[in-house]
Amino acid sequence: VAPAQRRLPLTPQHVVLYPLVSKSLRNIAAGKDPLEGQRHCCSIAQLHEHYSLGYPDLDELQKNPQPLIFDIEVLKVESPGSYQQDPWAMTDEEKLQAVPLIHKEGNELYRQGKVQEAAAKYYDAIACLKNLQMKEQPGSPDWIELDQKITPLLLNYCQCKLQCEEYYEVLDHCSSILNKYEDNVKAYFKRGKAHAAVWNVAEAQADFAKVLALDPSLRPVVSKELRSLEARLREKDAEDKIRFKGIFSQ
To answer: What does the alpha-carbon distance between residue 194 and residue 162 come to, in Å, rounded to a whole number?
Structure first.
């Protein structure tokens, strides 16, 4: 589709709140919460509360309102029914309906080897459910039901992060799961792999031992991980000996 443009002139009195709107839109484009940094108060109070919006051009516009001209460019045209809303723009019902679809898309991307894209899908699904969960009383049946839907998505997200070598994020998320669900084998296994990757040897061994205690059928998989860890330790010890020998021989 050829790009199309339309100019929409606005006078200064109509754009006094535009800097805040623009900041929210920029947060959305960056994958952040559109209300990041804002608290519940009127918009004028927001203007006075924040010394800076984080963008020099918006700060300048806030101090000196000017007429604005918006150039809107059509990037693509989608067929009816194909448009998928961003999670932040969905209603509660739409979020619940979207989660299984987003989960499925994430699984398909993961099977295709598109790990980063899959992680983003799992993150969107988690965000939908977390938003709904915030409206429930912690520990209530509805809260627990949502949390049980979040857990497998979070484990999928952790699997992606393991492959991306973002191990400390895996440690944080798996630990948060195990604080609530002490018998989650997958969380112990993924946390064990993350511990092993960052040389937390005792912690990795403890997690793998817990995996075996909960599911002895996983012994072949756990044994493979432990052998890999032991081999890496031997390599590291050999490298350290060579390194330190060079230091002491000087």
So the answer is: 7
- How many other CB atoms sit within 10 Å of the CB of residue 87? 20
DSSP string spanning 41-79?
S-HHHHHHH-S--S-HHHHHHHHS---EEEE--------
Q: What is the pTM of this model?
A: 0.68
- In one-letter notation, the amino acid at residue 117 is E
Residue 204 vs residue 246, higher pLDDT: 204
- Which ranges constitute the DSSP H helices of 113-140? 115-133
Largest CA distance in the chain: 76
H-helix segments, the chain: 18-29, 43-49, 56-63, 92-111, 115-133, 141-163, 167-180, 185-197, 201-214, 219-248
Q: Which helix or strand (DSSP H or E) is residue 11 part of?
A: none
DSSP label of 183: T
Cα-trace Rg, the chain: 25
Q: How far is CA 12 from CA 53, 56, 67, 245, in A?
A: 19, 18, 5, 72
In the three-class reduction of DSSP (H, G, I as helix; E, B as strand; rest coil), residue 114 is classed as coil
Q: Could you give the CA distance from residue 229 to residue 180 in angstroms, rounded to a whole number?
A: 28
* 205 Cβ neighbours under 8 A, 6+ residues apart: 192, 226, 229
pLDDT value of residue 71: 82
Least confident segment among 2-11, 12-21, 158-167: 2-11
Q: Which position has the higher pLDDT, 189 or 30? A: 189
Average pLDDT over residues 100-122: 96
| Contact between residue 208 and residue 192 where contact means Cβ atoms under 8 Å apart | yes
